[in-house]
């Protein structure tokens, strides 16, 4: 009777444990071929607008604007942003774009319009009571003694001097032929510009933050200031860099109703780049090509230096991420990292081949265009042997999630251990 009762008790327990092993999350996550074909980190697959479900062509699933470039063809994308290679026995080719870029840069940056927060020095001949150093107010005006506020935002120093002279004449302090005003910028203020399109963090960004007070005092003692952190490159960097689908040679800058297209591909190729200075209220739009361009998957001035990936490696030999070596150093990866490199960094590769060769890894990534999460599954052994294939070894994006799962042999071994833990107390009863 005791043996019969023991059998009735053991058989359900064995079935329950084996059922738990067979219904593990590894078997529940089965990727479809459609996900693999449209996965964002795969450079061999173009990013089609059809991946945006139930949305207009210009808006993603989360309502974010998706601005496509005028030329969305993916032909020739493999070599578009590659850096040039030269040999020493051949002369360097003449780059006519350098002169064109210099002329464009001089035209755009000459007499740069003033923005709120700018520090200017105003000198007036025979007008010491009005001269001095002034800060442009948030409303875009400067306040000279005994005068009404003078609007200077949006005007260069030449036009600002003319406006100040006209205000002095209108107030009756000077005659038109005797007023002489000079305006010089002492410090360019931090500004807010809008960056949207194919960047990782679109929105309003602040560039050219004020330097420490000691350095600022030294700058104020000398006339003039160079706004090294108010450029288009700095704005793209402040938006966490461009995405791999960015149309880099067609970056759009909108200022006071005027639209300008700037070629920024020289940042990656080494050719000349127009260093466009920005002012408050500028809007930057980076169109998307609809294509994943692996030439943009490397650290640069306008791409991320590195990013964070969330990893989970709860193996038998590693009862937690900390003991398994998945620390902040292993989860912070350089930009351009592929899946295999992250799997190795998470200590998911290696060990006993008989039990660990059949392990699998699951990658969850968010498509920045459609806003959808895409989940793919890879065999770690096949990933190691076919790492050269883009289809098997995709690029990782910031904030991707990686989870490593044990093999079926390891799962069966753990099921046997669980049975042993369950039966151990029963020995005391029988």
UniProtKB/TrEMBL annotation:
It comes from the Bacteria. One of its GO terms (molecular function) is polysaccharide transmembrane transporter activity. The keyword Methyltransferase does not apply. Residues 110-183 form the Polysaccharide export protein N-terminal domain. This is Polysaccharide export protein. Pfam families: Poly_export. InterPro entries: Poly_export, Poly_export_N. Residues 1-28 form the signal peptide. Keywords: Signal. The keyword Ligase does not apply. It comes from Reinekea forsetii.
């Amino acid at each position: 009777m005791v043996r019969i009762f023991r059998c009735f008790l053991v058989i359900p327990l064995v079935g329950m444990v084996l059922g738990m092993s067979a219904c593990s999350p590894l078997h529940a996550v089965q990727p479809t071929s459609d996900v693999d074909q449209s996965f964002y980190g795969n450079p061999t697959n173009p990013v089609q607008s059809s991946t945006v479900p139930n949305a207009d062509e210009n808006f993603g699933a989360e309502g974010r604007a998706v601005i496509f470039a005028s030329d969305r063809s993916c032909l020739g994308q493999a070599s578009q942003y590659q850096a040039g290679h030269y040999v020493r026995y051949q002369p360097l080719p003449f780059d006519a774009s350098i002169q064109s870029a210099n002329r464009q840069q001089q035209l755009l940056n000459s007499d740069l319009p003033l923005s709120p927060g700018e520090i200017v020095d105003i000198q007036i001949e025979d007008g010491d009571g009005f001269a001095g150093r002034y800060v442009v107010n948030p409303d875009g005006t400067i306040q000279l003694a005994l005068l009404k506020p003078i609007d200077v935002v949006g005007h260069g120093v030449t036009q600002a001097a003319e406006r100040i002279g006209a205000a002095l004449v209108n107030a009756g302090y000077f005659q038109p032929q005797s007023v002489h005003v000079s305006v010089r910028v002492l410090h360019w203020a931090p500004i807010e510009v809008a960056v949207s399109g194919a960047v990782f963090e679109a929105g309003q960004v602040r560039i050219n933050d004020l330097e420490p007070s000691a350095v600022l005092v030294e700058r104020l003692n000398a006339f003039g200031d160079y706004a090294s952190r108010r450029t288009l490159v700095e704005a793209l960097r402040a938006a966490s860099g461009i995405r791999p689908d960015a149309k880099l040679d067609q970056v759009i800058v909108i200022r006071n109703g005027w639209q300008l297209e700037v070629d920024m591909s020289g940042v990656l190729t080494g050719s000349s780049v127009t260093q466009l200075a920005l002012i408050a209220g500028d809007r930057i739009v980076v169109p998307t090509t609809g294509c994943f361009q692996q030439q943009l998957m490397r650290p640069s001035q306008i791409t991320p230096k590195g990013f964070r990936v969330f990893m989970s490696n709860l193996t038998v030999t590693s009862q937690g991420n900390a003991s398994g070596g998945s620390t902040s150093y292993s989860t912070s990866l350089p930009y351009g990292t592929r899946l295999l490199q992250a799997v190795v960094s998470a200590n998911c590769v290696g060990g006993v081949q008989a039990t660990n060769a059949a392990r699998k890894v699951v990658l969850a990534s968010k498509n920045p265009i459609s806003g959808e999460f895409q989940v793919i599954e890879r065999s770690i052994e096949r990933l190691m042997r076919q790492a050269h294939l883009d289809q098997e070894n995709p690029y990782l994006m910031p904030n991707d999630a990686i989870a490593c799962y044990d093999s079926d042999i390891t799962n069966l071994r753990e099921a046997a251990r669980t049975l042993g833990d369950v039966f151990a107390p029963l020995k005391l009863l029988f």
